[in-house]
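[job 4417] fold queue: 2 targets
>>> target A
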Amino acid sequence: MSATATTSRSVLRQAISGQRRQVTLASVLAACHQGGEALVPVIIGVVIDQAVAGRSVGTLVFWLAVLGVVFAALSYSYRFAARAAEGASLRAAHDIRLAISRRVLHPGGGAESGKLAGELVNIGTSDAQRVGVVNAALPFGIAALAGVLVSAVALLRISLPLGLLVLLGTPPLLYLAHLIGKPLERRSEAEQERSAHASGVATDLVSGLRVLKGIGAEPAAVARYRDTSQNSLRATLRAARAKAWHDGAVLALTGIFIAIVALVGGHLASSGSISVGELVAAVGLAQFLLTPFLIFAWVNGELAQGRASASRVADLLTTPTVVGAGDGELPSPAAGNVRFTDVSYGSLRGVDLEIPSGQLVGVVATDPAAATDLLDCLGRAGDPTGGKVHVDGVDLSTVDPERVREVVLVAAHDADLFEGTLAENVGTAPDEALAASAADEVAAALPDGTATAVTERGRSLSGGQRQRVALARALAADAPVLVVHDPTTAVDTVTEAKIATGLARLRQGRTTILVTTSPALLAVADRVVVLDGGRVTGEGGHADLARDRADYRAAVLS
């Protein structure tokens, strides 16, 4: 038994147990409904035998009143059972979405590995909903079983052979339905995977639409999505065919079973073993049995799809984190002394680097991958494979990543803005942070200033405006250690010089690491460190390095 299979069952159990009260209430009410439905043909049979055959008006009125009460109870129980089941379904799906969101946003990372953003959204929406529907299906499955049991008891009272036929015939029928549902489960999982991948590709293409148009790559993008969409369509059609085959096969089996019950009842009536009223009740019960068996087919299909989706949810929830929690403690308040000791990670090879508290240091990486790896180590997006990164003498790999990011803020080059106003994106940024990042000029140029609405990912702003707003957000956090990666690649030289001066002034006395090749930013740094071949190959002032090192000039001034 695989760990994934065990965990997928755990996901289903948690979805059910989390809404146990609602599921139980829905099951009881739905069982009352199905039980009452089964009693209707029995009561009609009694009416025929006692009232019609006996020509008793009083008896007829009495049983009609009983029938009216049963119908009223049926209406009430079904309405409230459906409400409780649907509520349990929606709440369970909501709980699963919260669990998925917590895992995706976990400081330890890892959930996004190998998955596009659209795939994660698909798991958090479609798969979560399918797992939640199990809570709506179970009560009606239990209710259908109750209907079958009431029918069997009624048939046993009418005729022992009829009752035994239903009681003994139902379990094999349910087992066959379960076997028939296996292909549907497999194809449903494949359908969800292809659909999630198609959603991920679509999201990826839409987010990069402006770039695609700029390089004239629309035909290649359309071709890529067409292939992905066709794969998704084929998987969906296979799943639809499996569901149609499943529903048709179950319907055929139940039809044959019900026909057998009706034939046996007719034979018993013709031989005089049961009365006319009992025959009517038996035929009515045989026809009624079609409803619980159809419910069984629906429930089996929903459970098959729910199991497939639960497996995908379980895979996401059990994805190991990239970094562990750790029990180390950084001092509070943190001074911000940073030290790399023989650090190897990705393209970094034995990096030794000391950044005293309060110093503004520029880092020039001749390989962009080395810059990214440096950021990962500082923000604990990954732990070094060799060596240590210390902040205030504490090994970062021993500290919870959430606490690390309270002390060390890494402002990535591609940081996104959120949908909302400019003010909501920068938070409680003081005027000094807005001025230092030149984001005050962005606000001044917008129709409603900081109250201007920003679209998803800040696409309503230019690239330079987005960079300045993102930098203002990072500066506003006032972290003890601020790591900024290429914050001015999309702004003009005049604005870049203003940002360099403002950033140095605002961060005075606070540790700041500028991973950049911008001459304007490097010029205001206390010192500049050169990373070449994944190693520290030199350090000094910007002017001195530009004069003495050809590799530095090539990286910064070319």
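>>> target B
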Amino acid sequence: MCGIFGWVLAAAKHQNRDTLIGLTDLMSHRGPDASGYWLHQTSDERYQIGFGHRRLSIIDIGGGAQPMATEDGRFNLVFNGEIYNYLELRKELVALGHHFRTDSDTEVLIEAYRAWQLDAVRRLRGMFAFALWDDAEQRLVLARDAFGKKPLFLAEAQGAVLFGSEIEPLVQFPGFSRALDSDAIGHYLLNRYVPGPSTFFQSVKKLQPGHCAVWQNGMLKSTRYYTPPFATTVPDVKDFNSAIRLFEGAFDEAVRIRMRSDAPYGAYLSGGIDSSAVVATMVKHSTEPVRTFSVGFRETGYSELDHARVIAGQFGTIHNDLIVEPSAFMDHWSTAALRRGAPVSEASDIPIFMLSEMASRSVKMVLTGEGADELMGGYPKYRAERWIGLYQWLIPHLLHERLIHPLVRSLPYGMRRAKIVALAAGERDLANRMRVWFGGLSVGESEAMLGRLLSATPPDLFPYSSQIGSSLRRTLFFDQTSWLPDNLLERGDRMMMAGSIEGRMPFMDTVLAGVVARFPDDFLTGGKGGKRVLRAAMDKILPSEIIRRKKIGFRVPIGEWFRGPYREFLRDMLVSETSAVAQMVRGDRLRQLVTEHLDARQNHERLLWSFVNLEIFVRAFRVAS
């Protein structure tokens, strides 16, 4: 796990080594163990290639230094991530006549490209973002893993390209424009995150998940190499017990290959079924006690530490707890926004950052349960989606809009889940319904808040393109192609790496995803709590209280803190004379939201969280409006 940065610059824009070092080292938190830098010119001397690398050493600690060049000088690579099947690929490449100087997955990646060119990425089972210079072809190859677990940001202008694992080095590049993308503000209010390929900066884009991009002769072209199987697979597993066996085999292997490490590792344990399943499987393959790490709060109803301790006790792990205090949370907040390169969309990001700092003192890598809900059908919305078509057939659109919608809007905050289900049920536009599920503002509400019309068309229509099967499968496909890479997986990478620790996610395995896509809807959302196959597979392994307990989710008591220790901070961020956000939106509406929340008349914690983090982001990056 590392941080990569680099460029292709036209001759007139060439930079020196000091610039490359300084910008790369802004990501020293991603790679505190080692660094490397490389400058090169194209054969016609029209362009300069620059590669920078910060390393967190996990595989082949002594021999995997980057940038890595081949002996023949043809290839040079900087790489962030892990190739979990590198041992299998290495064996295959040796049989083809390839030779290796190191035991690293980095060299396997280079030789895989030598053997199979761009088709090599289809063979990689892992998480990665890399830049490879092919001197023979005079081309730069950029790639990002199938689900987007590893980030790769791009800035392209006049034949030049900047790339990096984080946004900060790009916006610090000499002469770089920090202009805000005004459309991104609208997408942020609608979705609570900015969907790719957009970012908050006009000049910065994301290389989308499952994409390769090739720069050659001043042109950059991107192509998709992976589509999540929920969009292409017709369910063919009819027997439930067969589904359990298929899942068990694929999941066991997904966990086992993610335990490949030459450095100490552990697991993040929430006490829910997802992380508990990961820990239970790790214990099977470990000759030593597994180290586990959990985070919680003192506020009643927000902490799952007791459940995590049950699992830790059952499996004999070396367990560590972290209790988050409001003051420590505040101390990490602005740094979290800086590392994220965007407003911190979920309050749970910051405790993960804090937990990662703690865990990095004893391990360098952890396995997590991230992505299980989006793969296995764990959220209540997935079960609701199965009935929305029937609701819309029974209830005419006009009746919903004129009678049911106003009644639902008037429900108290304590019924927020029921409100979201009812609002989503009436939304016939797929893009807008996906937004409703995440609790963002409607188009009308966003336009009223901003005082202008919005372009509500998503930056990328691919997440809405699935035509196979049910509304459930289309929703899962959306989450796997938008919500995960642009929010949850982005959180997983940025917050863990902010604490200098690598996170590996067995549920985000392409082979496992292919298996689960073969299951019919009922095997996913049937039964209480969803994730029916996962629950059945874990039934004889995990305590019944873990398998059957109601899903809580990782929530931070931010609403209570806004009324308590953060009260004046909230006012300063949003209603003071120094507030930038108060100039971006309708100030009177913003003041009303703050007043209603502080007076406990309404709970606006999600919306206020979004606005406070937008303010922190603007201040941290000195964004030009």
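[job 4417] complete. Note on B: Residues 230-375+477-548 form a domain with the Rossmann fold fold (CATH 3.40.50.620).
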